[in-house]
Write a structure and sequence with these properties.
GO terms for molecular function: oxidoreductase activity, acting on the CH-CH group of donors. The protein contains seven helices and six strands. By secondary structure, the chain is an alpha/beta fold. The protein has two domains: about 150 residues, TIM Barrel; about 30 residues, no CATH class. The strands form two sheets. It has a four-stranded parallel β-sheet, covered by helices on one side. Helix 3 crosses helix 5. The longest helix has 17 residues. It is globular, with a radius of gyration of 21 Å. The relative contact order is 0.10.
Length: about 200
């Protein structure tokens, strides 16, 4: 039976095909991402899930800043997919500042939603996001949020199109270096011995 309200389908983190199905099913928009099902851990002494309630545990919803990179990827995927491009997207996942909101909008979201940050810092954070984003738009000479929407999409591509022969070099500010050696360990183990310790 037809309804006279907008249908907004919230999608799971596996996105391209569910977004297509939501659109085909009549969704007017999509909001993403929801929390990611997760298990916090296992207590090594009791060998039970942690946290637990009465000796039992279950998955919870992983959210906040840690899921933002996942959410940004999903927003960009929907905006870039030929079958879902143009479908209105509301970005969700780890938005805690005006800059976070900007990233979602620049990757194609027409709106953003805030939960974890509002729970931690209160609803005043939303006004701080609005004023920060407005100041950014003014500084960049952009007339509206809509003028920002999707502006980063031309720089998003697939792995196969990256120039993997391009040489990039890390710059280390020696004045800030504390000689911990972590950069050497990371590069030696993962970047084909890009740094040689002296």
């Amino acid at each position: 039976m037809p309804v006279d309200r907008q249908a907004d389908a919230q999608l799971s983190p596996t996105i391209r095909f569910p977004a297509r199905a939501a659109k085909a099913g009549g969704a007017d928009a999509v909001s993403l991402i929801n929390t990611v099902n997760s298990v916090m851990g296992v207590d090594p002494d009791t060998l039970r899930m942690s946290p637990e309630v009465g000796g039992k545990g279950t998955h919870g919803g992983y959210c906040g800043p840690a899921v933002r990179p996942i959410a940004l990827h999903m927003v960009a995927e929907i905006a870039r997919d030929h079958e879902t491009a143009g479908l209105p997207v509301s970005g969700i996942g780890g938005i805690g500042s005006w800059r976070d909101a900007l990233e979602f909008i620049a990757l194609g979201a027409g709106s953003v939603q805030v939960c974890t940050a509002a729970m931690v810092f209160g609803f005043k954070i939303v006004q701080e996001m609005i004023s920060g984003l407005a100041a950014y738009l003014d500084a960049k000479g952009l007339a509206s949020v809509e003028a920002l929407r999707g502006r980063a999409l031309p720089s998003v591509t697939e792995w196969r199109y990256l120039d993997l022969n391009r040489v990039s070099k890390a710059v280390i500010n020696q004045d800030l270096c504390i000689q911990c050696g972590r950069c050497h360990i990371a590069c030696e183990d993962t970047a084909h011995q890009a740094i040689t310790a002296q």
